[in-house]
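Summary for the steering committee. One of the milestones for this cycle was to obtain a three-dimensional model of the protein with dihydroflavine-adenine dinucleotide bound, which we needed before selecting residues for the alanine scan. The sequence and ligand used are listed below.
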Amino acid sequence: MAEKHFKYVILGGGVAAGYAAREFAKQGVQPGELAIISKEAVAPYERPALSKAYLFPEGAARLPGFHTCVGSGGERLLPEWYKEKGIELILSTEIVTADLASKTLTSAAGEVFKYHILIIATGSSVIKLTDFKVQGADAKNILYLREIDDADKLVEAIKEKKGGKVVIVGGGYIGLELSAVMLLNKLDVTMVYPEPWCMPRLFTADIAAFYEGYYANKGVKIIKGTLAVGFESHANGEVKVVKLKDGRELEADIVVVGVGARPLKNLFKGQLEEDKGGIKTDAFFRTSVPDVYTVGDVATFPMKMYGDIRRVEHVDHSRKSAEQAVKAIKASEVGEAIEEYDYLPYFYSRSFDLSWQFYGDNVGDAVIFGDSSPESEKPKFGFYWIKDGKVVGVFLESGTPEENKAIAKVAKLQPPAESLEQLANEGLGFASKI
Ligand code: FDA
Ligand code: NAD
């Protein structure tokens, strides 16, 4: 089979790939120089839509509506855009071996791709219950969500099991977003997770109490502090019962599992330096091998603000890291330098009528402000995190665009705070005056 040569190859066709392509076009790329190789069958799109509007019972989002870069208010890059720019989209193509020494990638079908510069943007894959050998976990209708094909399976199952019972395994992002959207589809929803409260990596007990109360009021049943340890199926192979560690058994027509993700870096094992579960980079997303960059979920990069190194599995970083890497590549070609990546962590989620944003670091002491009663008609509340007398992180539910901008500024500037009481009393007023 003939080899294909490119000056730049982006391996992976997700969010980071779309934003990297746009940056290449901005910086100037000649037709035929850049290729994106993706195992997905579609051009890069905004993955967050899959757990939200893609699953709505009415007015659901569909491609080409949410190709990158609409998620951040930018131009929608349709397949024709790539064609016009001479950027080759090599879709439905899984790379199965990567040899960095010879700068060669090989696909499952045996195609060979050579590059001068490689950007690894492979993202993450879902952790499956079959990975832990949970008994019966290979039953039909035990579903996961990462790519658009997974979302289509969910859409099918929702249609087929109208009014049925859904068990959501996991109390993280997927758990919370999927249980909400399943309820909107008029399914009977039960969430199960092992921790004492949902989203424990970010939420305090108080934040979680609001969301758990709000979800319960909507009709979501929540079972905490236990695990799914087995499944029973019908004769046709479809899941029937979820068995919990505490002995309870739940009937289920559909099970959605969201128990975390794993960065996809196996192709490079032993070839690149790793740290904190990802591929280690510098502030320009250069890896330990010359001409190889990595961005998005797989990159472990220096977090300048906090003086440490981290891996971030959120869309804002995937976009910004992609842009940073391309800028660094183009600058180095003309012997110029660019500023180091200086990332302010930004995470968000939306479900029902709720929408929260978080900026900064959730370390130190935390204090709540505002109305966090799940019974309120218009709940609006937030949290400040204070470390060494400075405000280092802010969470806000139902903020306006201006208020969200204000909390981002606080997290970036880290203003001093006299006391937790001051912040609790001033609430959003504290952020607005910074
Ligand atoms: P991404 O996963 O987007 O892309 C990786 C691409 O590489 C995929 O196209 C994959 O097929 C391809 N690939 C991998 N291995 C390959 C191989 N060997 N050969 C060829 N192709 C290969 N974040 C947030 O901040 N807010 C939100 O609301 C959400 N919502 C959300 C919903 C859902 C359902 C998911 C799964 C994730 C989110 N996220 C999120 C997280 C966010 O989407 C995620 O951090 C980014 O998509 C990461 O971008 P990457 O480009 O790194 O990976
Ligand atoms: P997560 O890490 O947010 O949550 C995993 C949850 O799984 C844990 O909180 C825990 O409750 C549960 N869990 C772990 N082991 C379990 C077990 N054996 N049995 C039952 N529950 C168990 O991961 P996720 O929700 O699966 O999300 C996957 C990826 O998608 C992450 O990278 C996440 O950042 C991303 N995502 C982000 C958003 C967002 O930012 N709004 C939305 C959806 C997905």
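Key point for the committee: Residues 315-333 form the longest helix (19 residues).
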